[in-house]
Amino acid sequence: MNFDILKTVVKRNETSKIVLLVMDGLGGLPEPAAGSKTSLEAARTPNLDALAARSLCGLHQPVAPGITPGSGPAHLGLFGYDPLTYQVGRGVLSALGIDFDLQPGDVAARGNFATVDGTGRVKDRRAGRILTEKGAELCALLREQVTLSGAQFFIQPVKEYRFLFVLRGDGLHAKINETDPLEVGERPLKAKAQSPAAEETAALVRSFVEQTAAVLADREPANMVLLRGFSQLPRWPSMQEVFGLKAVAIAMYPMYRGVAKLVGMEALPASQSVGEEFERLAQCWAEYDFFFVHIKRTDSAGEDGDFDRKVAVIEEVDTFVPRILELKPDVLVVTGDHSTPARMRSHSWHPVPVLLWSDVCRPDRVTQFGERACLARGLGVRFPVSDLMPLALAHAGRLEKFGA
Amino acid sequence: MNFDILKTVVKRNETSKIVLLVMDGLGGLPEPAAGSKTSLEAARTPNLDALAARSLCGLHQPVAPGITPGSGPAHLGLFGYDPLTYQVGRGVLSALGIDFDLQPGDVAARGNFATVDGTGRVKDRRAGRILTEKGAELCALLREQVTLSGAQFFIQPVKEYRFLFVLRGDGLHAKINETDPLEVGERPLKAKAQSPAAEETAALVRSFVEQTAAVLADREPANMVLLRGFSQLPRWPSMQEVFGLKAVAIAMYPMYRGVAKLVGMEALPASQSVGEEFERLAQCWAEYDFFFVHIKRTDSAGEDGDFDRKVAVIEEVDTFVPRILELKPDVLVVTGDHSTPARMRSHSWHPVPVLLWSDVCRPDRVTQFGERACLARGLGVRFPVSDLMPLALAHAGRLEKFGA
Fold first, then answer.
1. B5 → closest Cβ in A70, A84, A381
2. Minimal-distance CA residue of chain B relative to A379
3. Domains of chain B from N-terminus onward
4. Residue A168 at interface with chain B, using a CB cutoff of 8 Å
5. Please, is A323 exposed, middle or buried when counting C-beta atoms within 10 Å of its C-beta (0-12, 13-18, 19+)?
6. For the whole model, what pTM was predicted?
C-alpha cells in the first residue's frame, strides 16, 4: 500500500478504535496425529468461531510468496508498512530485542563471540556456542578493558555467543561493512567505511575490534568478535502521521514493543501473562485509537514443536475475546504475524489466517477460524499483509472518499 | 517477485530437488459435447487427482490479466522471471525455435518473404504463404548470392514464408527499426539505426535487403523480404545465481530448450516421446536440483481443435506421475504455461490450473486436478505466475528467514 493515497483520505479527528490481536506464529500445518488438523483447527475456539461467522476472513501472505519472515518484517507488515520498503538493520533489531534504549544517531551492530586459530582465521563463528552466562561475563570484561576516544560504547549480552554493540556520539554513520566473513577458514574482515561520512565510525569500530582481540587473546574458544548489521534507528513516518492513529503496544517481549516503537507506537511496560495483557488493554482503552496486543506463546510452542501447547495457548486467548468485545472496539483484527508449524519447529512462509470484524464488514461464508476454513474467504488467499491496515481504517470509518 | 530479496535468503548449499512438469497449453474451456467439461476435467487422472488432494492448488495468471502469452513469456514466468521485465526479441525467439546456435553478440531478426508490386508497395506480407520447401529454396539462393563485408550472415528457413536472419561479427547492435510496414499498400521501411552504436549494423541490414530485392526481383510472389524484431541474446541472471539451482530442461521441441537456456538451464538432447522424457528425468536425477519437464502435445492438440486428443495426452502424462514420485522429489509442481482451449484452437489468456505438492505444503480442499476444482484453492486464483518459483524454493527448504 502506497502511503500517498492515505494522506489524502485519512481522517484526523476520528475517535473510533481498532484492536489488532496478534497470536505470534499462529498459522500451522496439519498434524496427522491430530486428525490432520492444524493447532488452530484443533483448538476449541467458540468465541473466535462465532466472531469469524460475523467477520471478513482470509489468509495473509507476510512479506512475499515463499518468504519466511523474521519478527521485525512480519510485524511491520501487520502495522501497514511494506516490509520490503521498510527494512531494519540487524543491529537495531538486536537492540530492540533486549530493550536497549537505542537513541537516534546511535550505531548498533549484532555481535558474535567467535574462535580464530593461530593464523587469525575463523575456526568457529559461534565460539562453540558458549553459555549465556559466559557471554555476559565477556561483555563485562570488554566494558572494563576497552576504551574508545570520541564516542561512548555499549556492549550488552543477548544470548549464548551473541551480543549487542552500540556506539553513541556525534556524527556517527552506519555505512560500514560487516566484519563477519560468514565462512569458516577466512579471516575476519576489517571494518571499512562504505561512504566518506562513515570514516570516523569505521575507525572507532576497528579500534574496538583490535582492543577486543587483545583482551580476548587467551580466552579460546571466545577469542574474537564478529560484527554484522551496522544500523541506526530509521526515521519513518509514524502511525499517527500515516494513519492518524494514536497507537499503543501491549506485549510481553521487548522485540515487539521495540518494533512497535519504530512506527511511533507507545509501548506499555512488559506484561507478565496473557490475562494481564488484556487487563492493560481495558485500563488504557480511553487513551488510544489503536491497540496492538501481542501474544508470544503460540510462537514459542510452535518453535518447541509442541502442537498441543500451541492448541492450549490459542484456547486460552479465545476465552478473552468476549472481554475485548465488551470494550466495544469499532474494528477487531485477529491474526498472526507468520506461521510457526509445530512440525517444522520454526517460522515458515505459509499464509496466516486472519479475521476482521466490524459492524460494517460484509461477512463471508467462513464460520470457523482456521486455515482451511479461511479459504472460503472474503479477504483473499495470500493477499499482501499490508492491505490489512487500510482495510481496518476503512471499517473504522477513518478514510474519506478518494476523488469526487 | 523482486530478485533482490531472494539474494538475501536463498540457501546455496541445499540439495533438495524440485520438479516442474509443464503440460503446454494445459488450461481449456468447457466443451458442451463433453458434458461441459474441459479436457483436463474430462481426462481420467487418478494420479493427479490423488496428488491434488495432498497439494496446494490454484490457477495462475500468465503475464497479466487478459494477456495471451506466447511460449517465451509464458515459460519465463514459470521459471520465476517476470515476463514483463524479462522480454526477449522476436529474432532471438525465432532462433531458439529452430535450435539455431545463436551466439552472444549476434543480431537476429524474424524474416518474412513478401510480395511487392511494381511501385515497390507491399501487396502481401506473407508472399501468398509459400510452402516451407519454397522458403527453404529461397533461403539457399540468398545464402549463395548475397555477400556482406564486415560480418557473417545466416539465413535459415523457419516455416512457410518465415525465416531467420542472423548477423554475426564484432560490435553489432540491435537497435534497428523493423522494415515490415505491417500494412499492405505501404513501402517496406528502410532499416535505420535507433542509436549511434547501431549505424554499422543498420548499414549491413540495408545492404542485405537491397541485394535480396535484386536477387528476388523476378520471383513473385516472393520478391521481397521484411524483417522484424532485431535482437540479441539477453544477459540475464541465471537460475543458479537467482535461486541457487542447477537446472535442467527436458523437452522435445527446440523452443522450450532455448527459453530454458536463456535463464541458464542446461538442456538435454531432444526426446522423442513422453516416455523417453521421463526416462531422461530418472537418468539425470543425481545431477541437478531443478527439473523442467515439458510436454508439448497438449498444446498441439488444443491448437488443432482436438479436444479428445488433448484428453488422451493428459491421461498419458497422468500415468507417469507415480514414476516422478518414486524419484522422491522435495517439491513437484504440475501446471501449464498457458491455456489452449480446443474450442479456440489457439493460446488464450485463461488462468491455468496448478498444483504444488511437498511434504510441508498445507493442502487445501481441492481433491481433483481441474480448472473449476482448483477454485477451492490455497494458492490463489489469477495469482502472478512468478510467485510459483519462490513458493517452490520455500517448500524445498531453500530459503532462509528474512530479517530477524
1. A84
2. B380
3. 3-86+236-395 (3.40.720.10), 93-231 (no CATH)
4. no
5. middle
6. 0.88
